[in-house]
Amino acid sequence: MADHGPKTNISLAGTFASSAFAACFAEICTIPLDTAKVRLQLQKKAVAGDGVALPKYRGLLGTVGTIAREEGMSALWKGIVPGLHRQCLFGGLRIGMYEPVKAFYVGKDHVGDVPLSKKILAALTTGGLAITIANPTDLVKVRLQSEGKLPPGVPRRYSGSLNAYSTIVRQEGVGALWTGLGPNVARNAIINAAELASYDQVKQTILKIPGFKDNVLTHLLAGLGAGFFAVCIGSPVDVVKSRMMGDSTYKNTLDCFVKTLKNDGPLAFYKGFIPNFGRLGSWNVIMFLTLEQAKKFVQRIESS
């Protein structure tokens, strides 16, 4: 049987395992930046009449510093348990299913480079499907991350991630676990398309440049490109999603979008652009570098 290169000669289970592992590893490395990003996005403008209230969190590293100083280093890894639940499910499904879904869209007789439109379509499909399954993990992660330093005597809403799942179901009903599903599906389908399709496309383009091989440098450059595209395209939906999940006063996605635009101006949708790129850029680089190595490792095991 002809060998079709590293993409096709690895089993579906192997692809899922590699993807879930790479996504979890990237999550552990970058969750402090994600916690800082959620806090920055949920920070609203100071209301006139408060005197000159300075924002509590300023900048990505400033926010990381403030959280570590006020709440201890461990607060930066708040939400890591549901974060890993999410990456196992969501990362494994969206990344692991991308190649098979892409192959399905182009048809089994396709020869040559896959058109960009088909890559985008495949990534939109796997991103939307995966987050529909993983939404509860995302909700719990945001709820745990958004809880800052509490005044003495005020108990925490949730003692941990499992307690958060059960408390939300008990107090708000099972459906509440899918709060923010609309913007979350939009965000993750779009970001998945921006990440996976651009990684695929950037890598394909780099490999056509003389002297470039399918190695760590190529994976690094393609990963950075993927992170940048993902933030440019996904930032507005990301802000809406964080605000809806962290604050239950919004009626729906449109209501949140309109209120944010009216109260905070259009730039609010790119609030935390630098932390978002710091987070997604580094996340993508770590994830894709780990993924390429994990797939090689699984391939060696499967072929031995």
From TrEMBL:
<keyword id="KW-0346">Stress response</keyword>
<keyword id="KW-1133">Transmembrane helix</keyword>
<dbReference type="GO" id="GO:1990542">
    <property type="term" value="P:mitochondrial transmembrane transport"/>
</dbReference>
<dbReference type="InterPro" id="IPR023395">
    <property type="entry name" value="MCP_dom_sf"/>
</dbReference>
<feature type="repeat" description="Solcar">
    <location>
        <begin position="114"/>
        <end position="205"/>
    </location>
</feature>
<dbReference type="Pfam" id="PF00153">
    <property type="entry name" value="Mito_carr"/>
</dbReference>
<comment type="similarity">
    <text>Belongs to the mitochondrial carrier (TC 2.A.29) family.</text>
</comment>
<dbReference type="GO" id="GO:0015171">
    <property type="term" value="F:amino acid transmembrane transporter activity"/>
</dbReference>
<feature type="repeat" description="Solcar">
    <location>
        <begin position="10"/>
        <end position="104"/>
    </location>
</feature>
<protein>
    <recommendedName>
        <fullName>Mitochondrial uncoupling protein 1</fullName>
    </recommendedName>
</protein>
<keyword id="KW-0472">Membrane</keyword>
<keyword id="KW-0677">Repeat</keyword>
<dbReference type="InterPro" id="IPR018108">
    <property type="entry name" value="MCP_transmembrane"/>
</dbReference>
<keyword id="KW-0999">Mitochondrion inner membrane</keyword>
<dbReference type="InterPro" id="IPR002067">
    <property type="entry name" value="MCP"/>
</dbReference>
<dbReference type="InterPro" id="IPR050391">
    <property type="entry name" value="Mito_Metabolite_Transporter"/>
</dbReference>
<keyword id="KW-0813">Transport</keyword>
<dbReference type="GO" id="GO:0005743">
    <property type="term" value="C:mitochondrial inner membrane"/>
</dbReference>
<keyword id="KW-0496">Mitochondrion</keyword>
<dbReference type="GO" id="GO:0017077">
    <property type="term" value="F:oxidative phosphorylation uncoupler activity"/>
</dbReference>
<keyword id="KW-0812">Transmembrane</keyword>
<feature type="repeat" description="Solcar">
    <location>
        <begin position="214"/>
        <end position="297"/>
    </location>
</feature>
